[in-house]
């Protein structure tokens, strides 16, 4: 868990993306990019990293926090 916390907190955009999905719920990549004011290719890369770490799930192009992702997001938010 500490390793995942470090992975997320080591990158401001990873942290922002988890917080965004934690507060707004599921979204597609284009909407995430628009909300974060980050170019979509960067968001696509971050999404792929977070899916690989099992912090996000993807279904038909829509991303949402997994239970693990919710737990990490809450832990970071509490800091």
From TrEMBL:
Q: What is the protein's name according to its record?
A: HTH marR-type domain-containing protein
Give a GO molecular function annotation for the protein. DNA-binding transcription factor activity
Q: Tell me where on the tree of life, at the top rank, the source sits.
A: Archaea
Domain (HTH marR-type) spans 16-57
């Amino acid at each position: 868990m500490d390793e995942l916390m470090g992975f997320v907190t080591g990158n401001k955009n990873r942290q922002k993306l988890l917080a965004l999905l934690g507060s707004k719920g599921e979204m597609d990549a284009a909407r995430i990019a628009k909300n974060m004011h980050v170019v979509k290719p960067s968001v696509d890369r971050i999404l792929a990293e977070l899916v690989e770490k099992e912090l996000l799930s993807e279904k038909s192009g829509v991303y949402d926090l997994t239970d693990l992702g919710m737990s990490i997001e809450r832990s970071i938010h509490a800091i």
